């Protein structure tokens, strides 16, 4: 069963439970504010949020983390985790981590091999070899296998030598870097330069775009795990699931008598084994089986559960078509809070803006739109050219096209306003920032 925290928060809290130092989070620039907010919500302080200028897969990202740690302590042991896994048995996880850490201290690169519970075709597999002589319950890796077809998966699940590849690694920083340099010298050099020439941006660290973008796009599995002689596996059964698809969420979620898992405002009739989630409007599903139905504020997805992994193909098609839904969510987080679209039409757009206590937006102007702000909760200070105007709940203010303006929350509670934009162009890139406390 999933917890009430996000997967990112659960991942960070595992490090807290293990008594580790504050995490290093390698992420895309677009996710930096929501990550910072989610860590703040669970009380994780001191995290280093490192921004990738472009996506280059897991090997460059892990190399960046290893370089950062090695600056202070090359012998430090890293626990590398993606933030999209669910784990049910925390104590068993900690027991497996203790074995992996012991192996890592001796110079091995340890991963967790999860005992299969079904013939899964969405995961890679690990074949274990002989037991490591000086580390109990840890085995040399005989081979890594790619995601199998259904027939091969059925064979593997019956063979006790094979386990699911969790994609988690435990290793010393210097060992990781040495193996990356051995097998992927270009990745090593590019990321080394990107880390060396990083810049600090408010609470974030930005890797050098010129250097990082030149790195090969390659996963840590292809770059190191499948080639190194140092790979070992810790067999484990701590209730791990890679939440890489909606079908995986269906498996982890409590279900009704007909096998349906639902979230939000959902009504079902004669439906079986479906996963239905609505984050807004009511969703009704009738007379179907084995479907995934996801309703959000800006898109609807319907898929057979057997094809849930194909969502990546649809995202690629949306990206190729230039659709903003492929990369932007309806709710967009910023360092001062968030905004979300409510409705949009020809020459107008309505948004809800949430500003955290003590925060303020940039001093800015627009060339193509005017704005009307209505305060519905809290109190605002609005800069309008040379004026500073106090706007209370149920009051409003008009900002003509071209006027210099800023929104600030001076109070102790969140500020919520409804913003009505009007004009011939309403894109987010029609912002001229004149001053910004977040150095954007």
From TrEMBL:
Query: What CDD domains does its record include?
Result: cupin_PMI_typeII_C
Family note = Belongs to the mannose-6-phosphate isomerase type 2 family.
Q: What is its EC number?
A: 2.7.7.13
Biological process GO terms, please? GDP-mannose biosynthetic process; polysaccharide biosynthetic process
Any coiled-coil regions, as ranges: none
Which InterPro entries would you find in this protein's record? Man1P_GuaTrfase/Man6P_Isoase, Man6P_isomerase-2_C, ManC/GMP-like_b-helix, Mannose-6P_isomerase_type2, NTP_transferase_dom, Nucleotide-diphossugar_trans, RmlC-like_jellyroll, RmlC_Cupin_sf
Query: What's the source species' lineage?
Result: Bacteria, Pseudomonadati, Pseudomonadota, Alphaproteobacteria, Acetobacterales
Q: Does the keyword Nucleotidyltransferase apply?
A: yes
Residues in MannoseP isomerase/GMP-like beta-helix domain copies: 271-318
Recorded catalytic activity of this chain's protein: alpha-D-mannose 1-phosphate + GTP + H(+) = GDP-alpha-D-mannose + diphosphate
**Top-level EC class, please?**
transferase
- What is the recorded name of this protein? mannose-1-phosphate guanylyltransferase
Entry-linked PANTHER family: MANNOSE-1-PHOSPHATE GUANYLYLTRANSFERASE
> Pfam families from the xrefs?
ManC_GMP_beta-helix, MannoseP_isomer, NTP_transferase
Q: Which domain of life is it from?
A: Bacteria
Q: Which UniProt keywords apply?
A: GTP-binding, Isomerase, Nucleotide-binding, Nucleotidyltransferase, Transferase
Q: Is the Cytoplasm keyword given for this protein?
A: no
Q: Name one GO molecular function term.
A: mannose-1-phosphate guanylyltransferase (GTP) activity
Question: What are the residue boundaries of the Nucleotidyl transferase domain, all occurrences included?
Answer: 4-257
Report the residue ranges that make up the Mannose-6-phosphate isomerase type II C-terminal domain in this protein.
322-436
């Amino acid at each position: 069963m999933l917890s009430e925290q996000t997967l990112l928060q659960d991942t960070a809290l595992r490090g807290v439970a293990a008594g580790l130092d504050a995490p290093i989070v390698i992420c895309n620039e677009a996710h930096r504010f929501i990550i910072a907010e989610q860590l703040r919500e669970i009380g994780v302080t001191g995290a280093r949020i490192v921004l990738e200028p472009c996506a280059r897969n897991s090997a460059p990202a892990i190399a960046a983390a290893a370089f950062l740690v090695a600056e202070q302590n090359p012998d430090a042991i890293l626990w590398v985790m993606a933030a999209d896994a669910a784990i049910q048995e925390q104590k068993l996880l900690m027991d497996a981590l203790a074995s992996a850490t012991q192996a890592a201290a001796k110079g091995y690169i340890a991963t967790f091999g999860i005992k299969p519970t079904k013939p899964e075709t969405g995961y890679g597999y690990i074949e274990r070899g002989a037991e490591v002589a000086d580390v109990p319950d840890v085995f040399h890796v005989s081979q890594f296998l790619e995601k199998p077809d259904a027939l091969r998966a059925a064979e593997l699940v019956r063979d006790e030598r094979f386990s699911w590849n969790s994609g988690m690694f435990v290793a010393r920083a210097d060992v990781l870097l040495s193996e990356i340099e051995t097998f992927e010298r270009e990745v090593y050099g590019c990321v080394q330069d990107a880390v060396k020439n990083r810049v600090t941006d408010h609470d974030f660290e930005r890797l050098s775009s010129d250097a990082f973008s030149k790195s090969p796009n390659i996963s840590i599995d292809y770059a190191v795990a499948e080639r190194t002689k140092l790979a070992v596996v810790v067999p484990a059964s701590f209730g791990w699931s890679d939440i890489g698809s909606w079908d995986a969420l269906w498996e982890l979620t409590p279900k009704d008598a007909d096998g349906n898992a639902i979230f939000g405002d959902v009504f079902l009739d004669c439906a079986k084994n479906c996963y239905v989630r609505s984050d807004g409007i009511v969703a009704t599903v009738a007379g179907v089986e084995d479907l995934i139905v996801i309703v959000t504020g800006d898109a609807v997805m319907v898929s057979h559960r057997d094809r849930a992994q194909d969502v990546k193909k649809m995202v690629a098609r949306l990206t190729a078509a230039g659709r903003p839904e492929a990369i932007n969510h309806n709710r967009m987080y910023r360092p001062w809070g968030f905004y979300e679209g409510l409705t949009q039409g020809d020459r107008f757009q309505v948004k809800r803006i949430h500003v955290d206590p003590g925060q303020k937006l940039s001093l800015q102007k627009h060339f193509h739109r005017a704005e009307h702000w209505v305060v519905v909760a809290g109190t605002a200070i609005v800069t309008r050219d040379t004026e500073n105007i106090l706007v209370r709940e149920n009051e409003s203010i008009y900002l003509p096209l071209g006027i210099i303006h800023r929104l600030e929350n001076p109070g102790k509670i969140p500020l919520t306003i409804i913003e009505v934009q009007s004009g011939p162009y309403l894109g987010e890139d029609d912002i001229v920032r004149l001053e910004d406390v977040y150095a954007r």
